[in-house]
Amino acid sequence: MVKSEIRMVLLLVFMGIIMIFVMMPTTTFKKVWFPSIKAKTQSTYFGSAGARLLIYTFPMLFIAALGCVYLHLTKNNEDIYKKSDKENNRISIWKTPVLVKGPLGIVTGTELAFFIMFIALLVWSFASYLVMSFETINKKTAAKLGLTVWQDKLESAGLRFGLVGNIGLSFLFFPVARGSSMLALLGLTSEASIKYHIWLGHIAMVLFTAHGLCYAIVWGNTGHLHAFISWRKADISVVAGEVALICGLAMWVTVIPRIRRNMFEVFFYTHHLYIGFVAFFVFHVGFAYTCIMLPGFYLFMVDRYLRFLQSRRQIRLLSSRVLPCDTVELNFLKDPALRYISTSIVFINIPSISKIQWHPFTITSNSNLEPEKLSLMIKKEGSWSQKLHQILSTASSVDHLDVCIEGPYGPASTHFMRSASKHRTITY
């Protein structure tokens, strides 16, 4: 009973969040809803940011907090996975890949539906913003700003690109918060959610780049080059926006498959520029407007801090074996209370090889059959695994091998595998 009520509350709050994003570009929200909420929430502590904290930040954090309670109540409860064959078949249809090749990768029916709806939200928001702004632009209003009509419209379009880009930024960090309850509530794993982060990153950077280009074209045509170096304390800081955009472009360039695959360390270290990107983004738009993207970033930072604390603890290596086919087996001592299922992964770091490199591996042991042991199988492929193979081949080095582990991460259940295999046979 309690769980069903929590599900209902979570659904209602989520629908409310969607409604806010849909209504955000309308005059009703801008002139009626938001002023009314702002008048009631402006306080000594939060000031002008109170309304946006209530509208954008609080609902997301409320879902994350209540989601933790729900997941705790459903822990070790297999009843939530027991569905009829008819229900399983209906769900499996939506989880069947509908796109295999293409820029989006492997996409299921559910993912494609949500992707289309998200793009529709962006198009709706941009079109609504643009229509409202163009209605007020004419020769007289443009002349007051020292612009022509097309320059004023282009500048207005640039502003709207930035506003819509912030929607993509609002969801950008949710998929990379590995231990977040948000992913578990949706039945998503951290590794499967990376593609959503990639999609959102591309969308946000396209919009933010267009945002910057529009302003650059207008300022270049009007000769207002001094605007490029303006930093207003009480308004938009252009310099901060430029630094944030440069950080974003640097990360965006290293996402190119050829760079990411051949120079992964360049990609990895460059992505730490997200700290500079977010910091200067806050300076660019101000804290009040940052509240729109704050929930995702906040949950990501909490998750990142908890993972940092976990990764600092070293785990005891029970034994290791060098197997044929250039493969090594590592067996670690673990707490019997640590439970995981098949297909779970862990990230391991061996300081004697590299203090900063973390590599993911699939767990090969079963926590039910071996409650005090966690096993990994690692094949000698790259330079890191070659060094590990070399260390383990020397008996004297194994006793002093320090290993740090982060995880495990994996799906909340494999019931979908059981339901799928139940009705399918393979013929040769």
Automatic annotation (TrEMBL):
Residues 310-415 form the FAD-binding FR-type domain. It is found in: Membrane. It is a multi-pass membrane protein. GO terms for cellular component: plasma membrane. GO terms for molecular function: ferric-chelate reductase activity. Keywords: Membrane, Oxidoreductase, Transmembrane, Transmembrane helix. The keyword Hydrolase does not apply. The chain crosses the membrane at residues 6-29, 50-73, 112-137, 157-176, 196-222, 234-253, 273-300. PROSITE patterns: FAD_FR. This is FAD-binding FR-type domain-containing protein.
